[in-house]
User: Fold this.
Amino acid sequence: MKKIIGIVVAVIVVVALGFAGWLYLGRDPMSFAGGSTVALADYHGADVTGVPAQLASADLVKRGEYLTHAADCQACHTAPGGAPFAGGFAFNMPFGTIYSTNITPDKQTGIGKYTDTQFLAAVHKGIRADGAKLYPAMPYSSYTYMTDADALAIKAYLFTLAPVNAPARQNQLSWPFSQRSLLALWNVMFNPDERFRPNTSESPQWNRGAYLAEAMGHCGDCHTPRNLAFALDNHGKFAGTLTAGWRAYNITGDNVSGLGDWSDEDLTSYLSTGHANGHGGAAGPMGEAADDSLSYLVPDDTRALATYLRSIPAHASDLPRTVTTAAPASYREGVAADANSRGEKIFAGACASCHDWTGVSPVTGFATLTGVRAVNDPSATNVAQTVINGVNRKTTDGRIFMPAFGAGYSDDDIAAVANYVTARFGAKGADLTGKDVSALRQQAAQQSKEAPNG
Amino acid sequence: MADTQFAQSDAYLSALIREVRSVPPAGVSLTMGRRTFFKLAGASAAGLVLGFRLGGTAFAAETANVDEPDGKDQAMNAFIRIAPDNTITIYSKCPEIGQGIKTSFGVIIADELDADWNHVVMEQADINPKVYGSQGAGGSTSIPHAWDQLRQAGAGAKAMLVAVAAGQWAVDSSQITARDSVLTHAASGRSATYGSLAVAAAKMPVPDPKSLKLKSRADYRLIGKRYRGVDDPKVVSGQPLFGIDVQLPGMVYATYTKCPAAGGKVRSFNANEIKALHGVLDAFAVDGTGMMVEVMPGVAIIARDTWSAFQAKDKLQVDWDLSEASRDSTSQFSAEARKQAANFPQKPDDNIGDVDKSFANAAKTVEAYYEYPFAAHVPLEPMNTTAHWHDGVMEMWVPTQQPDRGLPIVAKVAGIAPEKVVMHQTRVGGGFGRRLVNDYACEAAAIAKRVKDPVKLQWTREDDFAHDFYRPAGYHQFKGAIDKGGRLDAWQEHFITFTADGKKEASGANLTDNLRYSIKAPNLRRAKTMFPLRIPTGAWRAPGDNAQVFAAQSFMHELSLASGRDHVEFLLDAVNRDVPELVPKDRTVNFSPSRATGVIKMCADKAGWGKTLPKGSGLGLAWCYSHAGHVAQAVELSVDANKRIKIARILVVLDVGPIIDMAGSQAQAQGASTDALSTAMGLKINIENGLIQEQNYNAYPILRMPFAPMTIDPYFIQSDNPPTGMGEPAFPALAPALGNAIFAATGERVRQLPLRDLGYSLAV
Amino acid sequence: MLTLTINGQSRDVDVPEDMPLLWVLRDHLSLVGTKYGCGIAQCGVCTVHVAGKPVRSCQLTVGDVGTRAIVTIEGIGSTPNGAKVQKAWMEAAVPQCGYCQAGQIMSATALLDANPQPDDADIDAAMAGNLCRCGTYIRIRRAIKNAAAKSA
Ligand code: FES
Ligand code: FES
Assistant:
């Protein structure tokens, strides 16, 4: 009997360790590439960290500004309608709400008193100046790959901002998540706490792309699924997942559900403007990433990022191939209307004038629905979120605008129109209910940054 | 400082609403004044009739042919000009805001004149209250106010024509008949067109208005028929008509940005950046007068076209001083009102009989709490005005409902004498009460004074949502008693509303007199609680009534259910109760229990009251006395498990006296009912920390075609009572009829607007 | 300098390419029949025809028009269906304030161009994007049916 128990325990331990090991292996975002890596100091290729060549001779603050954009600090550290970098943005997690903090140089409520060492500890290890541990909503397990020099350039830039007095908002977390001390364990497991190691088997361009994607842009924080411990699970690297009520899509090379069928131009266009004709545009959190971060990258960096993305192993997800043919011109033809035609009537009133019954906008390519990933996502998550929150982006190619319908339309009506849009213009119609839409609203309560009456 | 200005602004508006709401009793409407009737011979007529148009080419088509100094038209009076070719030009003195007044006024005058309607041309009169008297459009009062005056204008001109003919033919004027702009003496077989007599007629002495015999209803030839709107040919072909269409040579374009929280002031703005933008000509801060109804502080941007101005506005960054700005919050008001509802104030406003005793002895008592939200007007034409400061004169083109009121205010703001303001009334792309206030005209004047060219100020739709004079929210705690005979015995109402000055209700936030006439209970007590409010409120189509009738008539239905009696029977009983009057004795009103009875009965009859409907269907009815009209409305509908409402039918029965233009009146009845349905279902303005949350139509779901009812049947009870207006009365009773129908269909009582907050929606 | 074809005429305009067609028409070409109501494609008062399709001119930048022919309310009366619709509108006394009606007529004409005998659902689909604050929908529906009947 004792023996049996012993065996069971042993098996459990082995399985647990194996599982832990499996989790642990999943934490390295760049291991997929194989090859051998070296410490940065030992790397003799071109500069793969820091700023691009154009800015090499710029002063520290300018360089810091570029890197701050590349690391996209602003999106998370700015509340809707609030002062940039003053924090207060809410992350609605399954276990509660975490608020981003003030990273303006205010001495009381911001980071004005941080020393370089303290700043590096926060960025690389998730440790606050007072020693408390940061929740990994702050992507320090990605930022940990950032060089000291780059992190300090960012600090130098942040310290030139006008200090804003904005005390941190109280997080609302359920037990045990409210216990910051438990994060020590998490960090041991999931934060490698090591700087970027270039891969000598890959090109300098690939390495630059890897640095931008992993150490700076932290793409995986939205696009890589998480494990039970809420850490990134790189077994499914970039295969897409749901983050803050929006679906971050599969950005692996999968031909059906990923970027496999995107041309290089499509990819660089999307990365630089947040829009690619035929594939649609960024909205919600990706719209912010495009506006606050990606659109600031110089073309060489955009290409490097594209090169890196192209190297990610294809990983099929549950999304169907996008439909690229336009719907018929008459509302009567095409996929049958929803049973009571409510979605169709709402589409007719609020949507058809820009998106057309064909899905190909007569007004602007930005409004074309045909071929758009979100429209071909049978969960209709991002379609519903876009209807609720709208889009309001300024790009070098012009303004991308769609009104937010969340306030004027009921959950039922938003569900009806999202179901209609995915059925008519996408691969498969969604079957959202009003309840689903209500849940989506909760999860993304903070996405709209439109300040009233600006 | 700011507080007094808020209060002053509000007081101005309250007075205005009171005035436009007070319909004159029969036979006391405005009559033709001496100046109006002043003989205007030949060319000099142009001066008085049209004011003076200084180089205005705003509407070239409209100014042509009437402003010629050597024009051959003969002015008979300020309303009527007759050309040799028998074309008759009639001036409509009040603004056309979609209520059809330009057509109706023409029909009234033309009927008395016995003019040939096919050769009548309608023009907008310029603003000159000394000549025309009141020139506003609001509260459905244009018709009742002008009824006698217009008929006298027509009859007076006809008398002058007849006098000439009688002289020329040497016959007695009583033997001359008039028809289709031709005078005939049957006995001698002589006839003459008005055009041929006009030159001489214009020189005839002006008859005494009191000597004129006006037609009786049986003699109307034009009144009561169906008309196409006189501007319709221009409307359907896109010709310039509206304020926003005005174009002047060398014109520049302006936007004006005020603090999103009412009452905020400009500290500074990014002037250099704005002025450097493409197409921008100038940008400057305006202090304003601090009065909501005039000019609040803001930043003007002047540009070479609208787009440049709007683009620059997008980039405008203003540092606002918010120390005196609104921090109002609708969610707080709503929560607070609910809390206070049960505390009936010590001092009632109305108190008759003995309410407490009635409650004590009642067979049944019923209590209920009702609420409805703030609402915005948002007519489709955004606020705009074109102004040109030249030669010491402020010449402006304004789409307003109150040009006569606006003119002196504009003069004050511009710091010039009223005589130096020339205001041209344009057609108005929707009023609904928003344009009773001339704030945008004042802003244009303030801006024009600093710009050498003519300038067109246009608000964005977002401006329009953010800077309205909103329909105030309201909260009503009712308690009613039914006596042993099943009759309404007591009515107690705690009305929670708003105040701008801390003393009396904010404009549009008082319990309307209409309700005081129409809720009849032997024991009645009303009191109010007022929350201070910074957000400006005002008149919104059928002010007060538009929502208060929902609360009162829904509760009336609750009482009728408690009484165990039929709703219609219960209503008729209540309407005809002989109870002490609450209304101040010095006010004469047209409220009549028998007319109310008439519309209720007819509505019940037409709706098939009492018929058996399938499960899930219901018929609801409500009535109101509003803006001198007696109205009953019925809604038949069904409601499914998802709370989707399918409207089968809407009926409106109105007694507004004789109908002038049947097509126009039907349009008003259908339009007001549609508007009321739209508002009841979905419209709501939320305010958080002084900021209006809804910024455009995407957040303010005005009813669209697929959800609009297919049939709204209007019926009119016509009578010899003087006509009253049609702009408002078909609005208020719709919402309670809808709620009562929902109750009939589902057993669920609707005590809150909009219905979408309760999960209801219209089925497709 | 851009060249546009409007109501059959060629018009040159000197404006930035990102200016919405609406403001080019209203401010630079004196074609003020096309109205501004919301600027976000929600009201329909700015509707014009571009290559025969109803388009919200507040959203279409002039640079994106290209060589597509534009017809506005000022020119729609010269098309057979446009004239029919205008007539039907007057006969049914559709307009109240009238501000939305240019857009309504442009949408209705495009509907009849594509579908000479529309039923209620067709009318809903074509007209749902045009708001009327005054509530003229019942008569709009009737006028469209009357105009269609005339073409039968
Ligand atoms: S102004 Fe273009 S749709 Fe409203
Ligand atoms: S007629 Fe006034 S908005 Fe349609």
Q: What stands out?
A: Chain A touches chain C through 23 residues (CB under 8 Å).
